[in-house]
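Researcher: Can you fold this with DP6 in place?
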Amino acid sequence: MAGQEIYQASTTAPVNIAVVKYWGKRDPKLNLPTNSSISVTLSQSDLRTHTTAACSSKFPSEDTLLLNSSPQDTSGARTQACFRELRSLRSALEASDFSLPKISSLPLRIVSENNFPTAAGLASSAAGFAALVRAIADLYQLPASPTELSRIARQGSGSACRSLFGGYVAWQMGTKDDGSDSLAVEVAPASHWPTMRALILVVSAEKKGVSSTSGMQITVATSELFQRRAEVVVPKHMSEMEEAIKAKDFEKFGKVTMMESNSFHSVCSDTFPPIFYLNDVSKAAIRVVEDINKKAGKIIAAYTFDAGPNAVIYYEEENTAAVAGVVKGALEGLDGWQSREIESQDAGNLDARAVQVLKDGVSRVILTQVGEGPISTKDSLLAADGEALKK
Ligand code: DP6
């Protein structure tokens, strides 16, 4: 039996933004998707969740989770599924090696922090569940690969399975009922195409829209367009996107990214009652990207939107001036530009009305780039007595 010691492991995990979107579940309990998807993992210098997972017989008997200093409910089916799966892998390990401390049945204490404002409405559940699963797997010293762990993180939040890898990541939908083949795999590491940049325009939404979990359920139940998307559009975009990434072909990458975002938001509009995630500010961002590409005479910038109005604009480093510089020229003074040295460029060729809508509706920018998967760290969020560090 384990004594009073505190066992712990800490990790950081990244956010990912899909370029081929996951939207629709064939099994809501296991989070099995109706189509495969692909994402780009973003740098943890700008967006990450830091998590410490600990267990000890001296902790109170309930598992606990603290996020940004506020206690979270751990009784939900998703968190419970992750705890159960990881505990069962640890107990199998303990059964096969009697020298290992029996820690699988000890209460868990999870402490997490995001380095970005939660209010920004950026998909934080992906980084959150990826960090939770990776930290507990490290605590339990599981010999599990990122792909094996993706099967567990997927049950926390579908998109979280892709945050177990850095770079360019595919979530293969799989066909089995038990979900054992619905897994994330690396398409290419960040080092294969390190010049990918992302400019995020954080749009101040008045109220929270429909959550992705419930939104996609209503889409599956009511949209006829959805079936065509899942059967025809996404399989085509999947293979085109993999080719584009392998060949580092930005024009192709950008075209598929934008068409994917448009296809996803079209099935949202075709949902009954319709779901609108894009607002006028989002549409102004689309207009500005179109103007930038028109001026360049080719696709050098690509927009994509998830279940909210924030715009993510992908571009290559060599086009920093023509993309981020021009947007900075139009949106001078916003919070976030100071994080990178970007020179403002003349924004005169952008649609003046679109620029005004962006000025009124964008609250801050985040400049980031493709990045690495989860990183183990010695930096613990617990004090020596096992209590969460006071912030
Ligand atoms: C639009 O992964 O948040 O961002 O599995 O219900 O937790 P759950 O949904 P979630 O959905 C993300 C949807 C998306 C597209 C994507 O990331 O692929």
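Model: Folded with DP6 in place. DSSP finds nine helices and 16 strands in the chain.
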